[in-house]
Design a protein that fits this description.
The complex is a heterodimer of chains A (about 575) and B (about 625).
Chain A lengths: L2 H4 L6 H35 L2 H50 L2 H6 L2 H43 L1 H48 L1 H6 L3 H26 L2 H26 L4 H43 L19 E8 L10 E8 L4 E6 L5 H6 L9 E6 L2 E2 L5 H7 E4 L8 E2 H5 L8 H10 L3 H6 L7 E2 L8 H13 L5 E5 L7 H14 L4 E5 L3 H4 L4 E6 L2 E6 L1 H7 L1 H16 L2
Parallel strand pairs in A: 3-10, 3-11, 6-9, 9-10
Antiparallel strand pairs in A: 1-2, 1-4, 4-5, 7-8, 11-12
Chain B lengths: L10 H17 L1 H33 L11 H49 L2 H6 L2 H43 L1 H48 L1 H6 L3 H54 L6 H42 L11 E7 L5 E3 L7 E6 L6 E5 L4 E8 L8 E8 L4 E6 L5 H8 L10 E3 L2 E2 L5 H6 L1 E4 L8 E2 H6 L7 H10 L3 H6 L7 E2 L8 H15 L3 E5 L7 H14 L4 E5 L3 H4 L4 E6 L2 E6 L1 H7 L2 H11 L2
Parallel strand pairs in B: 7-14, 7-15, 10-13, 13-14
Antiparallel strand pairs in B: 1-2, 1-3, 3-4, 5-6, 5-8, 8-9, 11-12, 15-16
Helix pairs in contact in B: 1-9, 2-3, 2-5, 3-5, 3-9, 5-6, 5-9, 6-8, 6-9, 8-9, 13-15
The chains are: A alpha/beta (about 575), B alpha/beta (about 625).
């Protein structure tokens, strides 16, 4: 198993070590108990010695109780160790993802992360439990049984000594052969999960286009592939039992042959032959156990690799020791900023952007679809790092700030926003978990959300379902704005966050911004001219470049794009005045 | 996470087990019979190891002891016979192991397929009521438990049961009296294992529930991970996660503890039984009661030694069986969810008009559609031309009974009209479209489509007649080409380009390094929101539907692009009915009729000019925008 992952065992090391120790003692009992049994039969019963039977019988019961205790205890420690290890792994992955930057998040799909946290970890947990319980048991059992055999018959012990490595080798070879197939299976599982997830998320689209059959076919193809791959892998593993049985039977036959000749020759007792066969079966089934664990480990191996992928991902951003914890003001400066989502040398999404925004200003950004509006603002709270140039907040390069401090002061309402399962109170409190009810209500009023919240029967305690699907798009946007406002940021960025809000409400929100949070720098990305027209500064974006900066009046004079947009939106209205 | 179930094993569990077994015997009847036979052969072979040894010793080896020149030929013969039995056993094991792989995976495939296919028939309401994570969990965690059970537990239990029966018969033959003791011990064993498995079963079911909770939480948080980052909410997320994780640890460690205790408990009860039998049997034989000789005793005890082994094996499988049954129960519960009701029988067909103006059905696309309306009474069929005439009669509707979204709504869309809905957020605009395509059902006669009660139209045909671009854009994993083609599966590349051009998406697509072959994943996160909307519009455009619904379809698209897209769509939809929902009044200005909604009621209706003259809410909305300038 992956050594690095084993570090996550942590506080469950005690149980992990205790398990094999207990198991070994249990095995000792298990080897001794049949000896006593043989004695009861060979001496007690054969000679009709009741005293002997009772005496050894009592000893046997005591040992059985000890074995019971050891076995139960080992079971418990193994269960705790493995469940604890699984818990720690889940913990580590989840925490690791929390450290991810946006760039890191882009590397993993949601369904991939979910599979890792569930199926993959369950696999590792099972493999771990079997490993610590059985991997100590099997070799110990083999050694003890071999010693016992040796005391009875050296030639038979030699036969076993030759058989063990051969059988072991074959079984391991089979496991190795199946391994790549299992990896393929688990990769295909991701595809399957992804398809399910998309179909659940986009159930409306599937239904609207009557694509149920199409999706069924798509899914059927994937599940067919899993069937084929999995069958292939398991069919290889299915060789295990017959080969194992074949070996056991062969060994038994040879033993009877050799043992029988020895008995006839007088160099062996009949009871000894029975015992030797019992030991042989114990040894070989221990080997079987090892391969069983081996298969489990192999299945888990694929899972381990996938877990390591997450744990080994290097967070793209980390705070330096001397990171600045205070954002002095809401000034924003862009100096020759280049940005590419694929890093240096990639396609530049943003080219040579230069900007200077003063604290408290209202800045509007407009531009065509895909013109890099969102890209531009995402650099301010350092959701991504610039590829070239620098972005400064409060006169300091954003890379010098403590990330938490920066993001506390730069509040973004993302274009693709999400609400979470929970009440409205709980959702808005994401901005500040200690905010009072009044404080929450105040920001909701600011975001013009209070009026519709009051209409819900449950008011602020109304439960939001996953993804916020029980409120309308515009309501969702206003709740998201309220959530961002609760942070009391020095810079507030609305990335097209009022697109589903009607113009009147939109205007009221902006009015509230101006009156209630005058010192906060406000950046508003919008499609509607009316949303940005009264801004102190408007930035016009086009194909990843800043095409023009100025007030509405200035841009009307100097910027063709702005003028065209303005006229197309205002024309109809003006005609009817 | 609201789903609370009381973990328990009951009569329902047995029903679940039967149903699950039905999957095995249903599809793979012959294979399963072969498996049963092979398991029988295999267990006979494995039992014969201990059974034959005594005969070999008594009949073939001991008589030869002390002979000067022993004749081994009979021993060789016996060993050859035994070897043949063993070989049969090995072959049988090989056959059933391979067959079980196919059966197990085949059943899993069928369960997955049926689950998915059934999920596709479920109403939207189901998706509203269940978290994505808990639905996902059915396909991952719960299906995984089935694999374990079918592949390992079923053969193991069958094999062990056979071994028990054979051993039991052998013991009974040797000494009925002592076997009584064995039965007594078995009863104890069963009682004890009932207690232990009762406990472990409880915790295993709880473990699966906790696992589903973790899945649900993780799924939601990972989807919103960007929001988590923006709000510095990592710490709080971590705390909440830790709580769920701890719960899972509790139930999981307890479940596995009880499960692991099972083996030692049964095994050592077996050891105690051995002693009891020896003492009791020894006493009987010494006292000469019950015709028990010491020789019989010795053989009997040999059997006792191996008797508990299969019980242990069965007990060990118990937990995976319970876990699988709990998983199966959840899977079946989903499969038993009522599918969308569809009693519609009116279908949509391509049509053409003959010289007399009669409508006849035809195969090829003509741009003319008709509703095919079979009459059960006399077996005749009438065709009604699809015109796009949609009417609501006095509609009152709420998603939950205590909160009505639409009130006494009456509206009509005349064929060929572009009909717009305006209103504040939450006024009920999207709800109207949800009802037209029957994502949610309403009482008969409330909505008529070309004067047909829409409940009589087959849902698939109804939806095929309605192109729709939804407020939330969802794209699928695949290339851009495939995503657009989603609207019309047999579209040629040229048609895709045409639709993309119409949606003004062609430009940005060609700018991408791989153009139309750009691979989208995770709902098209690589693209901007506006670009995704353009793709959704292209997807609707390629379908070229008789009626189109645009629900905030251009909300993230800049107005310049929007007007280009709009012109394209207007051209495409000339003469056909279009519903438009938008906040931006510029989007809807050229509509034939505009309806202003407020709190689920239509308060104004008319053309742009008429509404302005009315000087009502629309006028205020419209001029409100100008006030800002």
């Amino acid at each position: 198993m992956n050594r690095k992952l084993l570090r996550s065992v942590r506080e469950y090391k005690r149980e992990t070590i205790l398990t094999p120790v207990l198991v070994m003692l249990e095995v000792l009992m298990e080897v001794l108990i049949p000896l006593l049994m043989a004695n009861i039969i060979d001496i007690g019963i054969t000679e009709g010695d009741m005293d002997y039977i009772i005496r050894i019988g009592l000893l046997l019961i005591v040992m059985a109780m000890i074995a019971l205790f050891l076995g139960a205890k080992a079971g418990q420690t193994a269960a705790i160790a493995s469940a604890g290890y699984a818990k720690n792994l889940r913990h580590d992955i989840f925490y690791k993802v929390q450290d991810f930057s946006f760039g890191n998040i882009d590397h993993f799909s949601t369904s991939g992360l979910v599979t890792r946290l569930t199926t993959d970890i369950t696999n590792v947990q099972m493999a771990y439990m079997f490993s610590i319980r059985l991997l100590a048991r099997a070799p110990f059992m083999i050694i003890l049984s071999l010693i016992m055999t040796m005391t009875i018959s050296v030639p038979i012990a030699l036969i076993l000594l030759v058989t063990i490595p051969i059988l072991g080798g074959v079984l391991i070879w089979i496991a190795k052969k199946a391994h790549p197939h299992f990896i393929e299976v688990f990769d295909e599982y991701d595809v399957l999960n992804n398809t399910v997830q998309e179909n659940v998320n986009a159930a409306r689209v599937v239904k609207a286009y009557v694509r149920e059959d199409y999706e069924n076919k798509k899914f059927g193809k994937i599940s067919r592939k899993i069937f084929v791959l999995f069958t292939k892998a398991e069919k290889i593993v299915a060789w295990n039992s017959p080969i194992m049985q074949f070996t056991v039977y062969a060994v038994v036959l040879i033993m009877v042959l050799i043992g029988g000749r020895n008995i006839i020759g007088g160099s062996m007792q009949t009871g000894e032959l029975t015992s030797v066969i019992v030991y042989a079966i114990q040894i070989l089934s221990s080997l079987m156990m090892v391969t069983f664990v081996f298969v489990q480990i192999m299945i888990a191996e694929a899972s381990t690799d996938r877990i390591s992928e997450v744990l080994d991902e290097v967070p793209e951003m980390e705070d330096s020791e001397d990171a600045i914890k205070e954002v002095p003001n809401g000034d924003i400066d862009f100096e020759h900023v280049d940005f590419s989502y694929s890093g240096k040398g990639g396609n530049l999404s943003l080219k040579d952007a230069n900007l200077h925004i003063k604290s408290g200003q209202i800045v509007g950004i407009i531009g065509g679809t895909g013109s890099a509006k969102s890209t531009l603002v995402q650099l301010i709270p350092r959701l991504y790092d610039v590829t070239g140039g620098s972005v400064k907040v409060g006169g300091i390069d954003v890379r010098k700030y403590n990330l938490k401090a920066l993001r506390d002061q730069v509040s973004v309402v993302l274009q693709k926003n999400v609400l979470f399962t929970g009440s409205i109170y709980e959702n808005v409190r994401w901005g500040d978990e200690n905010a009072s009810d009044e404080e929450v209500q105040r920001v909701c009023k600011l975001a013009q959300a209070d009026s519709f919240i009051q209409e819900f029967p449950g008011k602020y305690d109304t439960m939001i379902v996953e993804g916020g699907n029980n409120v309308s798009g515009g309501q969702k946007q206003r709740l998201c704005i309220a959530r961002a406002l609760l942070k009391k940021p020095k810079i507030l960025i609305l990335d097209d966050s009022t697109s589903a809000v009607d113009t009147k409400t939109d205007a009221l929100i902006r009015q509230a911004f101006r009156e209630e949070i005058p010192d906060t720098t406000k950046i508003i990305i919008a499609q509607r001219i009316s949303s940005v027209e009264d801004a102190d500064m408007i930035i016009v974006m086009e194909n990843g470049e800043i095409n023009g900066i100025g007030t509405s009046e200035e841009l009307l004079r100097t910027n063709a794009i702005y003028r065209e947009v303005y006229e197309s939106q205002m024309k109809g209205g003006a005609d009817n005045e | 996470m609201s789903r609370q179930e009381r973990p328990r094993v009951n009569a329902g569990t047995i029903k679940t087990a039967k149903r699950l077994l039905g999957y095995v015997t249903g599809t793979y009847k012959i294979q399963f019979i072969v498996v049963l036979f092979c398991i029988l052969v295999s267990s006979v072979a494995s039992i014969s190891v201990s059974l034959s040894l005594r005969y070999l010793l008594d009949d073939y080896i001991i008589p030869l002891i002390g002979q000067k020149d022993p004749d081994y030929s009979e021993l060789y013969m016996a060993l050859t016979v035994l070897g043949t039995i063993f070989l049969c056993g090995v072959i049988a094991t090989f056959v059933y192991s391979r067959l079980m792989v196919t059966i197990g995976q085949g059943v899993l495939k069928r369960v997955r397929d049926e689950m998915f296919e059934h999920m596709q028939t479920l109403p939207i309401r189901y998706f509203d009521q269940n978290t994505n994570g808990s639905i996902m969990s059915l396909y991952t965690n719960d299906t995984d438990t089935l694999r374990q059970m079918i592949n390992q537990s079923i053969p193991q239990v069958l094999m062990s049961s056979l071994t028990i029966i054979v051993t039991f018969v052998a013991m009974l033959v040797l000494s009925p009296l002592l076997t009584l003791l064995a039965v007594l011990v078995i009863v104890v064993m069963i009682l004890v294992s009932k207690v232990v498995t009762g406990n472990s079963g409880k915790y295993f079911i709880r473990q699966q529930l906790d696992l589903a909770n973790v899945t649900g939480f993780v799924e939601e948080r990972m989807n919103g991970q960007r929001v988590v980052k923006v709000f510095n909410h990592e710490k709080i997320s971590e705390e909440e996660f830790d709580k769920l994780n701890e719960q899972l640890f509790e139930s999981s460690s307890k479940a596995h503890t009880f499960a692991s205790i099972m083996g030692p408990v049964i095994g050592n009860i077996g050891n105690v039984q051995f002693v009891l039998t020896a003492v009791f049997g020894g006493f009987l034989s010494v006292a000469g009661i019950g015709n028990i000789t010491l020789g019989v005793m010795a053989s009997y005890l040999q059997f006792t030694k191996s008797f508990t082994q299969p019980f242990m094996q069965i007990a060990q499988q118990f937990n995976s069986i319970i876990m699988a049954l709990a998983g199966a129960e959840r899977i079946f519960r989903m499969m038993d969810e009522e599918p969308e009701v569809d009693e519609g029988y009116v279908t949509l067909v391509n049509a053409k008009k003959d010289a007399d103006g009669n409508i006849t059905e035809c195969k090829e696309r003509t741009g003319l559609w008709a509703w095919k309306h079979p009459h059960q009474a006399d077996g005749t069929v009438t065709y009604t031309e699809l015109k796009g005439d949609v009417r609501f009669y006095d509609m009152t509707f709420g998603y939950t009974p205590d909160h009505m979204v639409l009130h006494n709504l009456t509206l009509y869309a005349k064929p060929g009209q572009k009909l717009a809905f305006v209103g504040s957020t939450g006024a009920g605009k999207t709800t109207i479209t949800n009802l037209i395509n029957r994502f949610y059902d309403v009482a008969d006669g409330k909505i008529r489509y070309d004067d047909i009660n829409i409940n009589k139209i087959k849902k698939a045909d109804l939806r095929r007649s309605l192109g729709i671009v939804l407020q939330d854009t969802h794209l699928f994993t695949g290339t851009i080409m495939e995503n657009i083609r989603y609207g019309k599966l047999d579209a040629t590349d040229e048609e895709v380009y045409k639709a993309a051009k119409l949606a003004h998406a062609d430009g940005f697509i060609r700018m991408l390094p791989k153009g139309y072959d750009t691979h989208l994943s995770g709902d098209g996160e690589e693209l901007s929101q506006g670009q995704r909307q353009l793709l959704a519009i292209a997807r609707a455009a390629i379908a070229d539907p008789p009626v189109l619904i645009l629900d905030e379809a251009t909300s993230s698209i800049d107005t310049r692009t929007e007007s280009i897209v709009q012109k394209g769509m207007d051209n495409l939809m000339k003469g056909r009915t279009v519903f438009v929902i938008a906040h931006r009044l510029s989007t809807i200005r050229n509509s034939d009729a505009i309806m202003v909604l407020e709190h689920g009621r239509i308060i104004e209706r008319g053309t742009h000019e008429e509404l302005l003259k009315l000087k009502g809410t629309y006028y205020q909305l419209y001029t409100g925008k100008l006030e800002l300038s």
